[in-house]
Amino acid sequence: MDENFRESQAFWHRQAAIATERNRELRFQHGTGPCNVFILDTSSSLGKEGFTQMKEAFTSIIDEYAKHTDIDENVAVIVCGRETKLQRHFSNHYEDIKHCLDDIEFGGPSPLFAAFILSTGCLINGAK
Questions:
Q1: How far apart are CA 110 and CA 51, in angstroms?
Q2: pLDDT per position as a tens digit, 31-42
Q3: Among 35, 54, 73, 109, fewest CB within 10 Å belongs to which?
Q4: How, if at all, do strands 35-41 and 85-91 pair?
Q5: Other CB atoms within 10 Å distance of the CB of residue 2
Q6: What's the CA gap between 94 and 17, in Å, rounded?
Q7: Would you state the torsion angle of the CA atoms of residues 18, 14, 58, 98, taken in this order, to the nearest 10 degrees?
Q8: Are 95 and 66 within 8 A, CB to CB?
Q9: Could you tell me which residues are beta bridge partners of residue 39?
Q10: What is the rounded CA–CA span in Å between residue 50 and residue 122?
């Protein structure tokens, strides 16, 4: 079991390194304000109603970002559930960000540990 954990941890650290590099490549999309990473649980533990509520709350939050363009915040989105991945790299294109969950399927486990490691790829010095 210890070996599986180490392999899993190494895998997610490699994914974080890939995310770091990709964020560097996409700097032209970045705003000048603070960076925020959303880790959104899309797993079956939410239930269908909880999944719908999470998507509505996320959309509402992003709508608020769009109202305050003077702050020019960057948003990245990580989903964890059936798939755990960096769904949206840092950007200040709020209309696009709002729709990044449109094709996400509800279900699967809740690999939050993997999502937390993956988030380091967004926050490592030079990635933002």
A1: 13
A2: 788 889 999 999
A3: 109
A4: unpaired
A5: 6
A6: 25
A7: 20
A8: yes
A9: 78
A10: 26
